[in-house]
Design brief:
The structure is a single chain. By secondary structure, the chain is mostly helical. It has two domains: 76 residues, no CATH class; 154 residues, no CATH class. It is 79% helix and 0% strand. The protein has eight helices and no strands. Helix 2 runs parallel beside helix 7 and helix 3 runs antiparallel to helix 4. The protein is rod-shaped. The mean pLDDT is 90.
């Protein structure tokens, strides 16, 4: 729910969801009493409908929730891998001549700063980050301008080049996850299913209105909570449950204690 904190957005969403469900129950109770002539037959038929619907709606919610969590988990792994590869690149430069390794290390530190301060701000807004593109190009130029001498330097350069290629690929995965989200049709199906569920609960014949509202409210509370959690995690870099730049911040702290040459 926008940029609201979790302590406010969660109660608002779930509370509103429960309230609407209870209002549907209140609105349908007098309608059902007027239209139903045989309550026993009505409950029997409605029980089959609710049971069948509950199976399909439950499966849909479960599949969507699992899919969203897998996307979130993959999006969380990309920054961890990228941060680890930056550390490996930094360590790899310590074996190079000072006039070559020094500029590379400075570029890596600048890259970390830009990712933390600028890239992540763009990703939180759902925008593809581009602030660090030039820094990656600069680092690539430093690597390709280096001409190793001897077998040892050639071996170190080959390892460094391989690590850089992995870093570029992982960086692309992190950036691609910025716009990762479920197709709109899935959310349409979920919202329609939630509305149908509220209507079906409202169609049940229950003598006590209080008991009826408690039943509807409890079911709506759970469904609303699942929907809120799923929607909040749907875009990995936004929302209350989001991937942060903590991995890059830790690497930036660690680089200060690493050897410079």
């Amino acid at each position: 729910m926008g940029n609201l904190p979790l302590a406010l957005s969660l109660p608002l969403f779930v509370g509103g969801f429960v309230l609407v469900s209870c209002l549907i129950v209140v609105a349908l109770r007098p309608v059902v009493r007027r239209l139903v002539d045989d309550p026993e037959q009505w409950d029997r038929v409605l029980g089959h409908v609710i049971g069948t619907f509950g199976v399909f709606f439950g499966i849909l919610l479960a599949l969507v929730a699992v899919s969203v969590y897998e996307n979130y988990s993959n999006a969380r792994q990309a920054p961890l891998k990228e941060a680890g590869q930056i550390t490996a690149l930094y360590r790899g430069t310590t074996g190079l001549p000072a006039q070559v390794g020094g500029p590379m290390r400075d570029t890596l530190q600048e890259y970390l700063r830009v990712v933390i301060e600028e890239d992540w701000a763009d990703q939180r807004r759902g925008e593809l980050p581009d602030a660090s593109v030039d820094i990656v190009d600069t680092l690539e130029d430093h690597i390709h301008d280096y001409e190793p001498e001897g077998l040892q330097q050639l071996a170190e350069f080959s390892q460094l080049l391989g690590t850089f290629d992995d870093f570029v690929e992982t960086r692309r995965e992190r950036i691609d996850a910025t716009t990762l989200a479920l197709p709109t049709l899935f959310w349409v199906a979920i919202w329609v299913g939630a509305a149908v569920n509220a209507v079906l609960i409202g169609l049940i014949i229950v003598k006590s209105r209080r008991l009826h509202l408690v039943m509807a409210g409890m079911l709506a509370l759970f469904i609303g909570l699942v929907m809120f959690t799923t929607a909040d995690m749907d875009r990995p870099y936004q929302g209350s449950i989001s991937v942060g730049p903590g991995a890059f911040e830790r690497v930036m702290e660690q680089l200060e204690d690493m050897p410079q040459s």
